[in-house]
Specification:
Its EC number is 3.2.2.n1. InterPro entries: LOG, LOG_fam. It comes from Aeribacillus pallidus. GO terms for molecular function: hydrolase activity, hydrolyzing N-glycosyl compounds. The protein is of the alpha/beta class and 193 residues long. Helices cover 39% and strands 17% of the residues. It has a seven-stranded parallel sheet with strand order 4-3-2-1-5-6-7, sandwiched between helices. The longest helix has 16 residues.
Length: 193
């Protein structure tokens, strides 16, 4: 594992623990010699983690669509910035550059990005680990939603393993390194294959 994509809020959130977690995750990435891939913003939790990695001498690769440069305030001091045309290109480039995915707290954009990454894993498009840094139980409802999907018959029990949870950045990185994709299971219960 060389590069980790971190999805995070373009706002800092109201709980100071979110910012603290972004700093700690950035420190852990540098300590583990992992490069950061992220959305390229200088504000919100995105900016916090990028600045932390840069201040500690780490490598930060940003990916941002041109039309978001002003709204998300593009970071001007990255190791490398990839300018893309739209959100689809952004996610594809971030996925191409990364060996693993982590979500810090965030809103709709963060949710969409991490769920797309885990869906691609479930479909066999990649075998990269996907994780949620569950700060102050922010992602506990997602864990329950996954349990509900299994109980409701919408996915096999083994597919819970596609999403890793931890509330500590160091433990989360250890889990990413130890990740083994679940055994291939027929996703579609109505098909006999």
């Amino acid at each position: 594992m060389r590069r980790v994509c971190v999805f995070a809020g373009s706002n800092p959130g109201t709980n100071p623990k979110y910012k603290e977690a972004a700093v700690k995750l950035g420190e852990e990435l540098v300590k583990n010699r992992l490069e950061l891939v992220y959305g390229g913003s200088s504000i919100g939790l995105m900016g916090v983690i990028a600045n932390t990695v840069l201040e500690l001498g780490g490598t930060v690769l940003g990916v941002m669509p041109t039309n978001l440069f002003q709204g998300e305030v593009v970071h001007k001091h990255l190791t490398q910035l990839y300018e893309v045309n739209d959100m689809h290109e952004r996610k594809a480039k971030m996925g191409e550059l990364s060996d693993a995915f982590i979500a810090l707290p965030g809103g709709y954009g963060t949710f969409e990005e991490i769920f797309e990454a885990v869906s691609w894993g479930q479909l066999g498009i990649h075998e990269k680990p996907v994780a949620l840094l569950n700060i102050d139980d922010y992602y506990t409802p997602v864990k329950q939603m996954i349990e509900n999907a299994v109980e409701g018959g919408f996915m096999p029990e083994t597919h819970k393993q596609f999403m890793i949870f931890a509330d500590n950045p160091s433990i989360l990185i250890d889990k990413l390194r130890a990740y083994k994709p679940p055994l291939k299971t027929n996703k579609w219960i109505e098909l006999d294959r």
